[in-house]
Design brief:
The complex is a heterodimer. By secondary structure, chain A is mostly helical. Chain A has helices at 32-56, 61-73, 76-101, 109-126, 132-161, 165-185, 219-236, 238-248, 250-255, 260-287, 298-308, 313-334, 340-362; strands spanning 21-26, 363-368. Chain A has a domain at 85-320: ABC transporter involved in vitamin B12 uptake, BtuC (Orthogonal Bundle). Chain B is α/β, with parallel strands linked by helices. Chain B has a six-stranded parallel beta sheet with strand order 2-1-3-4-5-11, with helices on both faces. In chain B, α5 (120-129) links the parallel β3 and β4. The longest helix of chain B is centred in the first third of the chain and has 25 residues, at 2-26. Classes of the chains: A mainly alpha, B alpha/beta.
């Protein structure tokens, strides 16, 4: 954090005022209290605004909120589905976060997700008779590798010639999605699928183990392990130290003799591999086949999650769960007659207020005269 | 700061769990009937109403496919006051579908209508876990003890709309904005083409795939590309009126689908092949209530009233209307069958011999285009 803030403790200092002025001040040290209070208030405000809207359109806000919560965390099933929804978000969120730390704007998690799903599906469809103990590790490797490769493609021109990775990673998303579409509409189409864009189902050996009776699959462990490893890398290794320093100041890092080009490539490989694993765990854990539209935008949601979590691995896990709950609860609300568009509005309002409130934890709104000298 | 966020999230989660728990506690009776619902007798203890749920792939306001099903749901609720009919919209044909179906079964719904092809495997999966719930899957081909399918001969209405287009085109080029290359859509394009060429053998039908059911912008864009390629009437198999709106912008004609779409492009929409699900939903729910329901594969026809042609726009001249009405009567009377030979494929090879009728199986599995279609089915 650049320390250009006004002195924090003197803001309420008395003295002859020169009329009320409203000013923003950057907090020197983000307020601990605010970091807790503000988001809570933000959510309450969002719910209040939503309540006004809901009442105006003829719904009982409390009932709607209650069914949203019930859907997301009110039952064992709801909780399990919230986790299911959060798994790809966790992995892709962790993936983009490590790139963001180095100020590498990897917008390509969506494409890396698709390529990971592709790689895993290739193994499952090409070698259907492998036993599970070979099949799953092979799918894991193929998924991670394809994701990493898709991260490498934009990393090379960025490292060599400084080609802007925002554009290249974004564009490669479309390439990956179209590639998967080509396969599921073409060569990989299930011959018994009536021309519908999906591959034949994988063999049973290609299914990730699940927690009994739910759809929560081993992908959750991948995500948790990835979060721990990432934290270790970032704060306990030289490589992580370099990543953090390059993110703070590339110039200083270069001056200190760090190889930025090499780090760009390594970080994008890691970032892509994590998103690729998200794709692998989704096909192996949930859909058990590759199909058109396998991701409803996980790779993009992951970007929001990474930022809301301030790129911190543990927080990404938690924020992903919150998003999972928001999505799962959103569907449940519909059974009380609330249209999907209203649900999206509620979800949007919560995001808007939380992100808006975020500013308050970093800046203070100061009433009164301007700081004296 | 990071610690702060973590504490906050914990608090939020705790709050969430607390409120949810409070909600469960406060609503004991509802909770009990809920758990009763998935074993048997579903929801009979709540106001004696039978719970029925609908799952839609698009929003009910799409003015097309999902809207037409929702009209059917409303009709059902109106005709059978002892039914409580709810819906879930915007449910993607993927992992989410399985959860939504499970949730609906868990909530004590006795019948669940899943109204998109891509729900098929998820319907079968969930149906296994809830043997006392009846699942009706629209447009699919897999059935089970408690899973039936239903669909209709939209090709009949498509054929008639093709006749209108064949008569009204000036450039002899028709455009068709098509969703996914699956038999349902291919069948419709073929019927439309056969209808158009029955009145105008010079007509060509150009096809563009959007690979989406619901994406108003993409649908409109596809229509514009067809107009650029010389088409002067745009037909469509999508869930929104986007294609006709594009036609109207360019001063061309369009043909709607699913519901009477004339209000969205009044100067373009000549007519629309439409679905009329309501009576079928009433019949099905009554059959379940009376215990006469069986897992069948229902395929309704124009005679049954499940498919129809929306009223003609005033631009359609009387002689065209008469021609189409006459053919419609022949279809209803069983004197005319859409997929009757001779039918040639795109290469000119005869695929259905003169006098021969295509089998229902072949019609449901259509994977080739008839002569006169310009476009490719991805292989």
């Amino acid at each position: 954090m650049p320390a250009t803030a006004a002195p924090q403790n003197t803001s309420r200092s008395s003295g002859p005022g020169s009329g009320p002025v409203l000013t923003w001040e950057k907090r020197l040290e983000p307020s601990r209290l605010m970091a807790v209070v503000v988001p809570v208030i933000s959510v309450i405000l969002a719910l209040a605004v939503g309540a006004i809207f809901l009442s105006a359109t003829g719904f009982q806000p409390l009932k709607v909120y209650q069914s949203m919560l019930n859907g997301a965390v009110g039952s064992k099933y709801g909780i399990s589905e919230t986790i299911v929804k959060a798994i790809p978000l966790m992995l892709a969120g962790l993936g983009v976060s490590v790139a963001f730390r180095m100020l590498l704007w990897n917008i390509g998690a969506e494409g890396q997700f698709y390529m990971g799903a592709f790689g895993a599906s290739w193994v499952a469809l090409t070698f259907p008779h492998l036993p599970a103990y070979i099949m799953l590790p092979a799918m894991f490797l193929a998924g991670g590798l394809m994701g990493a490769l898709w991260g490498l493609l934009p990393a090379l021109p960025r490292a060599k010639w400084g080609v802007n990775e925002v554009i290249t990673t974004l564009m490669l998303n479309y390439v990956a999605i179209l590639w998967v579409d080509y396969l599921v509409y073409g060569p990989w189409k299930d011959p018994r699928g009536f021309n519908f864009p999906l591959t034949a189902p994988f063999s049973d050996a290609a299914s990730l183990p699940t927690i009994a009776g739910t759809r929560v699959h081993v992908g959750l462990i991948f995500a948790l392990v990835a979060a721990v490893l990432l934290a270790i890398i970032l704060w306990r290794t030289r490589w992580g130290y370099e990543i953090r320093i390059i993110g703070e100041s590339a110039r200083a890092a270069r001056y200190a003799g760090m190889n930025i080009e090499r780090n760009i490539i390594l970080v994008m490989l890691l970032s892509g591999a994590l998103a690729g694993l998200a794709g692998m765990s989704e096909v192996a854990g949930i859909t058990h086949r590759l199909q058109h539209g396998i991701s409803p935008g996980y790779g993009y949601t992951a970007i929001i999650i990474a930022w809301l979590a301030k790129l911190h691995p543990a927080t990404i896990i938690l924020v992903s769960l919150l998003f999972g709950g928001l999505i799962v609860g959103g569907y449940s609300v519909q059974t009380s007659g609330v249209p999907a568009a209203t649900v999206s509005m509620l979800q949007g309002a919560i995001l808007f207020f939380v992100l808006g409130g975020e500013i308050l934890t970093r800046y203070r709104l100061h009433f009164g005269r301007k700081e004296g000298k | 700061m990071k610690k702060g966020i973590r504490v906050l999230l914990m608090l939020l989660l705790a709050l969430a769990v607390a409120v949810a728990a409070a909600g469960c506690g406060g609503q004991k009776p509802a909770g009990e009937s809920k758990s009763g619902g998935n074993t048997a007798g579903g929801g009979q203890d709540q106001n004696q109403k039978m719970k029925v749920a609908f799952v839609y792939v698009g929003p009910v306001g799409d003015a097309g496919w999902s809207w037409a099903h929702d009209q059917g749901r409303k009709y059902l609720a109106e005709k059978l006051p002892w039914v409580e009919a709810t819906y879930m919209e915007n449910v993607p044909e993927g992992a989410d579908a399985e959860r939504v179906l499970t949730e609906l079964a868990e909530q004590g719904n006795k019948i669940i209508f899943a109204t998109s092809f891509g729900y098929m495997d998820y319907v079968i999966n969930v149906a296994k876990k809830y043997p006392n719930v009846i699942f009706m899957h629209c447009s699919g081909y897999k059935t089970a003890e408690n899973v039936g399918t239903y669909f209709g001969a939209m090709e009949e209405a498509r054929y008639l709309s093709g006749m209108v287009a064949g008569k009204m085109t000036k450039k002899n080029v028709l455009g068709f904005v098509a969703a996914h290359p699956i038999p349902e859509v291919i069948r419709g394009i073929n019927a439309f083409t056969l209808g158009a060429r029955s009145v105008n053998p010079n007509v060509k039908v150009k096809v563009v795939w959007t690979n989406t059911w619901y994406d108003p912008a993409a649908e409109k864009q596809a229509a514009l590309s067809l107009l650029d390629a010389g088409a002067d009437i745009i037909a469509q198999h999508q869930d929104t009126p986007g294609p006709q709106q594009a036609a109207q912008e360019r001063g061309a004609y369009g043909i709607g689908y699913d519901s009477d779409m004339s209000q969205f492009a009044p100067n373009a929409t000549l007519t629309s092949p439409v679905w009329n699900w309501g009576p079928y939903y009433v019949k099905t729910v009554e059959a379940v209530k009376n215990g006469t329901w069986k897992p069948e594969q229902y395929y309704g026809t124009m005679k049954d009233g499940i498919v129809d042609l929306a009223p003609f726009n005033k631009m359609v001249p009387q002689d065209v209307r008469d021609l189409v009405e006459k053919k419609k009567q022949e279809i209803i009377d069983g004197k005319f069958f859409v997929f009757q030979g001779p039918i040639k494929d795109q290469s000119g090879k005869i695929r259905v011999q003169e006098g021969q009728k295509m089998s229902q199986e072949d019609i449901l599995g259509f994977n080739w285009f008839v002569e006169g279609v310009e476009g490719e089915i991805p292989k």
